[in-house]
């Protein structure tokens, strides 16, 4: 039995529209169900990038962060183009000669540089406070304007090695707080996803608070892809400069970093990785004793090649961690992998070679084993002598 409903379209337009909509909807669902039945397959669900690479990925907050920052005492940051144009190894790319030349000059003078030096690339945008060719130096909080390729060697010699004024360039004192967020997408997808979102959030929250002395910029790889979002905050407290590293940072952490870290000088311990100028064991041993304020600055190592045992152990730990990350990233297809913990400057790195320490350790182990063997032999000889004397004495008594 078929029920037919007729309506006068001019008298009941709304009723006619409703009937037409229901009829069309029924036809659509029937056709759709028939198509599903015929194909008997459905496409797999699409995994959101935020779950794969972003703030909802499984590895977030799975490891302790304190002590994972790189050991260094000085940070050289070159302003160069935008983060979406950087290749995976921007500091060693033939197609980007400027950063490659600066990295090469630092490598060539590595034995002359008095303190551990980290090199990173940040964005340089014309018409902003940072332009291509500007070089930022921390903890000095100095900006050198417009470095050119022909002047790189003289700049490294005068400023980095001899810590003098740059004779051919313009030097400016920096103020305020400077936030560098890793957004190196060609190096690692996690940093490429998290970085731009955090940068936008920082700028929005800073504007809402009327903070005109907070500067946010994208930077290249700083080590620890798995801790993305990664960022470094350089700020002045009590006329001293501190550089603090944070990891596993999400947009929800941005207000707290602005209000508490920058505004009040308080460390956010749950996402704190470490700071410039403090060796690993000192970081770990002093973390619980940290007052809720930034330290009064950093003590730089002024003697060439002055390296503490704590720093050696940290460098070995960082190198092993980087190698593990490279292996995992290649297996997962997440990042490019490779490079050293200090920007992979083809040898200009704060990571020292483990070969020497392994050889030293093996020699000690060998001596220890030889000593143990000699000790066992000595004990055996003594026991043998005692037993022999006892037997001779017993035989002597029987003869009498």
From TrEMBL:
Pfam families documented for this protein: Suc_Fer-like
Keyword Membrane: yes
Lineage: superkingdom: Eukaryota
Classification via InterPro entries: Aim32/Apd1-like (IPR009737), Thioredoxin-like_sf (IPR036249)
Region (Disordered), start-end ranges: 298-333
Keywords: Membrane, Transmembrane, Transmembrane helix
Residue ranges that the Swiss-Prot or TrEMBL entry lists as coiled coil: none
Transmembrane portions of the chain: 376-396
Bias (Basic and acidic residues): 304-333
Protein name: Sucrase
UniProt lineage: Eukaryota, Viridiplantae, Streptophyta, Embryophyta, Tracheophyta
């Amino acid at each position: 039995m078929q029920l037919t409903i007729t309506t006068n379209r001019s008298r009941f337009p709304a009723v006619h529209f409703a009937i037409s909509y229901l009829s069309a909807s029924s036809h659509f669902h029937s056709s759709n169900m028939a198509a599903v039945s015929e194909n008997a397959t459905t496409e797999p669900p699409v995994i959101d990038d935020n779950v794969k690479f972003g703030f909802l990925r499984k590895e977030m907050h799975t490891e302790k962060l304190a002590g994972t920052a790189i050991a260094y005492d000085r940070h050289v940051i070159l302003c160069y183009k935008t983060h979406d144009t950087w290749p995976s190894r921007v500091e060693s790319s033939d197609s980007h000669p400027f950063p490659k030349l600066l990295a090469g000059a630092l490598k060539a003078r590595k034995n002359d540089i008095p303190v551990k030096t980290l090199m990173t690339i940040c964005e340089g945008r014309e018409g902003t406070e940072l332009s291509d060719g500007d070089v930022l130096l921390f903890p000095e909080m100095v900006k050198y304007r417009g470095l050119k390729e022909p002047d790189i060697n003289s700049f490294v010699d005068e400023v980095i090695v001899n810590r003098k004024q740059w004779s051919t360039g313009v030097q400016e004192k920096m103020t305020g707080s400077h936030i560098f967020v890793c957004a190196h997408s060609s190096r690692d997808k996690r940093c490429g996803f998290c970085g731009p979102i955090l940068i936008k959030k920082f700028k929005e929250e800073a504007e809402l608070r009327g903070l005109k002395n907070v500067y946010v910029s994208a930077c290249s790889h700083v080590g620890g892809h798995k801790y993305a979002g990664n960022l470094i905050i350089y700020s002045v407290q009590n006329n001293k400069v501190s550089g603090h590293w944070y990891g596993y940072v999400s947009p929800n952490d941005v207000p707290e970093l602005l209000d508490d870290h920058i505004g009040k000088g308080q460390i956010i311990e749950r996402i704190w990785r470490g700071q410039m100028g403090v060796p690993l064991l000192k970081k770990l041993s002093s973390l619980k004793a940290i007052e809720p304020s930034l330290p009064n600055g950093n003590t730089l190592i002024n003697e060439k090649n002055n390296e503490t045992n704590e720093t050696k152990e940290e460098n070995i730990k960082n190198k092993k961690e980087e190698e593990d990350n490279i292996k995992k990233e290649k297996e997962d297809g997440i990042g490019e992998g490779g490079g050293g913990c200090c920007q992979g400057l083809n040898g200009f790195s704060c990571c020292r070679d483990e070969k020497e320490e392994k050889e030293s350790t093996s020699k000690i182990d060998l001596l220890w084993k030889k000593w143990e063997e000699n000790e066992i032999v000595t004990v055996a000889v003594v026991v043998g002598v005692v037993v022999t004397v006892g037997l001779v004495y017993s035989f002597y008594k029987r003869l009498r």
